[in-house]
Batch of 2 targets.
Target 1
Amino acid sequence: MTVRLRPAMASLPAYVAGRKSPGAVVLASNESPYGLLPAVAATIGRLTSGVSRYPDMTATGLVEAIATYHGVAPEQVAVGAGSVEVVGQIASAVIDSGDEVVFGWRAFEAYPIITTVAGGTSVKVPLRDHVHDLDAMAAAITRRTRLVIVCNPNNPTGTAVGAELSAFVEQIPDDVLVVIDEAYHHYADPAVVPDALLAFRDRPNVVVTRTFSKAFALAGLRVGYCIGASEIVTAVRKTQVPFSVSGLAQQCAIAALGDEDEVRRRCALTVAERERTAAVLRELGYDVPASQANFVWLPVGDDAAPFAEHCAGDDVLVRPFAGEGVRVTTGLPEENDRFLTLAESWSRRPLS
Ligand SMILES: Cc1ncc(COP(=O)(O)O)c(C=O)c1O
């Protein structure tokens, strides 16, 4: 007799992590290229001996620091081991077997995995011109819908929806939860992309997720959080794996919140480099949708995998989505130049 797994496991897609290779230029995982924030490096030096003990399970200090940073009550903040876990906690809190989760596609590849693991059904609404089609998403909501996820800016296209998000949220029934995943918020132009924490502060069915993995350069320590109405946050806290955010991660995230000037400075560098990269790519003839994140999207279709191999051949790792396109994280200027040289040689390759 063999152990019986849930039937859904057979079709569960595996999360594909960006490639890593010693010495390579890694532009495949949307990480910060600048290393630890100075305040975080100092915190790690001080705290290493504490890792022999369990951390504060409720992450009180971190929750309070996040609440102060955003001007909300601590009861409105829940944390998890990365915002991917927080989205999973949210799904666990609202999804029952067969419930529907509506999201644009393609968006963050963890959404269908999280949905299936929670026992739900993914309703993938195709993007229009690489941007969330909010009208189609609203039309996709049924009586079975319990959760709607808007990835803004969107991974992997980098595109964002603007003021039209408000009218969309207004249309969502009060008993359906809307998650606005703002993992890339710091790289977005505030004149174009709404800050959902400000725009939807008073909407009890909106939860906003953020991460320390991108602009705060803490991807390896695993901290993310959500902000929403306290009734929802209480449920999201219940579905967290106990102690999933280590003490070191909690303290480093607090230190990172205090290094805001350095975070802003680095983000400005990344945005300038992103725009430079996109401009050169467009001159080379690539279609590059406007990005509001720390990466650009090249919708090269069937060329995605061979393009990525072409780059990997010179130790530059980018993230292909077979048959669709390639996502290229914005790195340091010299790293971006290495990539652009490869993009140029690819565009000039002889037609076979
Ligand atoms: C849109 C989006 N949300 C969430 C995450 C998860 O980030 P983390 O779990 O590292 O906080 C990512 C990571 O790539 C992402 O692209």
Target 2
Amino acid sequence: MEKAEQADAKLIPQAVVYRVEADNKGLINAVHYKDPNGNSTRVTDKLFVLAANGIETPKLMLMSTSDKFLHGLGNSSDQVGRNLMDHPGTGVSFLANEPLWLGRGPMEMTSIVNFRDGAFRSDYAAKKLHFSNGVPTMSVTADLLKKGVTGAELDRQIRDRASRTMIINSFHEHLAEPQNRIVPSADHNKDSLGIPQPEIYYSINDYVKKSTANTHELYGQIAALFGGTEIAFDDTFAQNNPIMGTTIMGSDPANSVVDADCRTHDHSNLFLASSAVMPTAASVNCTLTIAALSLKLADKLKREI
Ligand SMILES: Cc1cc2nc3c(=O)[nH]c(=O)nc-3n(C[C@H](O)[C@H](O)[C@H](O)COP(=O)(O)OP(=O)(O)OC[C@H]3O[C@@H](n4cnc5c(N)ncnc54)[C@H](O)[C@@H]3O)c2cc1C
């Protein structure tokens, strides 16, 4: 932000954009934002980039309807807000038969990415298995206190169990399905500025569920390799948080929202910098990819200007 401001960018904090305005030819003229008191301001320019993540970006586009764009901006393909994807995850924890001290803090230790591809993908989803680097001391201690362990024995068991706790979670590939989508709430659920909140429709299909059954088996095999005891599976789906697909990238304007430069097919001066442009989820985080796409977009904008 500091670098941007040194290069003459103007940062307006707490400005919530609620409308993007297009002329009848499809060029974007302005964005409208509200300050925390609800006062509205219109900002004009020549090029516009929406970068409000995978929920708010499509919501904003769908809210920006007009006589010319009845179904919102960038939406001639009817794909804005659709194909919502995450990496649904399951997990397992167990005690290994020797001290491993996995809870080493922020550094990622390792993941098993062997299951990112293979013939099995015609049957069930790809995935990444991820060894948690979280420090388990708090949860280990809470469990021991619940069991009534105290004093020197508590110290000994905290050290022993924290050193042997292994937690593995998973990132499953989610397919792009049009019915998984976000829409602006039509007539209720407005936020404190009176802006519609998103309604989210999201379900996990059998392709993923079949893969999680296989993941459960793999967890069991890994636990056995480590002489695991107290094996606890968690097969309820957890989110992994990269929000993808809601403004899908593609070469055909009939079935996608942005092109390879993150430029909307429908509006030549409107660009999207977001994980929302990911057309497939794969089985690993997409943030470095969207950072790369954003740098590419920045170069593009420099040339356009
Ligand atoms: C708990 C969690 C853990 C994660 N862990 C990882 C990880 O380990 N590895 C990884 O690769 N990725 C991870 N991710 C995903 C990663 O954070 C996202 O992919 C990334 O932040 C997306 O970047 P973005 O710029 O598109 O959106 P964001 O970083 O969300 O930025 C969007 C910005 O737009 C602003 N905004 C929204 N609506 C409006 C509006 N109407 N007007 C004005 N401004 C608006 C928001 O305030 C925000 O500042 C994680 C995400 C979460 C939530």
